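On clarity, I found the account of how folds are encoded harder to follow than it need be. For illustration, here is how one protein appears when written out as sequence plus structure tokens:

:::
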Amino acid sequence: MAVWMIGVDHTRADIDVRSVFSFTKKKIQEAYDHFRSCRGLSGSVILSTCNRMEWWLSVSEDAGFDPAALLCGFLGLDEKAYGPYLTERRDDEAVEHFFRLAAGLESRIVGEDQIITQVGEALQLSRACYAADHTLEVLFRRGITAGKRVKTETDLSSADSSVIHTALRMLEEKGFSVAGKKCMVIGNGMMGRISASTLAERGADVTVTVRQYHSGIVDIPRDCKRIGYKERYSLLPQCQLVVSATSSPNYTIQRKDLEQLSPDHDILLVDLAVPRDIEVEAGELPRFTLYDIDAFQIDLRSEKFQRNLARAEAILAEEKAEFYNWYSGRDIVPRIQALKQLSARDVDARLTPVFRGVPLEAEDKAALRREVEGAAQRMMNRLLFGARAKLPEDVFSQCVDAMEEVFREQGAEAHAPADR
């Protein structure tokens, strides 16, 4: 099997192009059903965030399909128009990218925390849809482990764990502090809750919009107030800052609605959603200034950051080596397990006459035989994996071939008719 990735991210596409490739949970499920019949495709995982969409594939070596054509076809897009925004990676390049991605090194805000959760959730949804295969399972699990190690063993983010932290820092550099300001957060998903909590921690008066669901009470972050989503325009003129962070395919704030308002002070609109929550033209109105997610950057020049980045790269090298150790030997491991079992059976067959003469009860004899078989398997396990660690891959493969041949010959001899 080979590992492929095709996707679009903030390095090559602006927010409007990324919006075209954005996947909701429902659309991801539809995609898994749609791609399931592709010849040569063994596994799929789709990751869709504000800054990127990536389709991860596990394919047979001779797979003949074109992932860009399949992706654009599913989304109803013109491949010639949108193909230039897509990046395709395969094998080592794809694996290298994935580990950096899971560790937050490919994020717009380097070291941000949310990507680990997003990668984990992408894998969970793929599992639920029976789309992930063993190769992608191992890749994603190992990448998540690497990301967690980078998070706990380095300090890449300098306490900026999300886009909202960077947004607030940038606004503070422009002279705007949220302390004591009236703020509204539209959306109560993960990004919305992080935004509301962060604003409240900074001393803002925060109100969160909630929709009424049949499922019951909707929780909001501590120290925040709530209003119904439909009431957002009634509160908006009183606010100095409005953050919108939903997964809605529709605008949460439109210019035509803002034109009906008459605020007596300036209002900052911060749009953290992909696709956009706030209509671009809303920022053209007097009293309103709009920032979208592409406006926020991070300074990478500090010596402390560079030291932590070097440590993160070393961690990723270790975790990638573990993955490659598994990946390179994924075909040989079942053969090793079979040899261990053959060895145990061979030892058992050779000791059968001895066991008959041992003065033990049947139950004790059975326990002794199990111990002997286990010891034989452990010995063979140590021998084989020790040889695998010491020998070049091609030489070790030849050794396994030879051992399999020896056991086959012994089996033939054991079943050959005796000489008369």
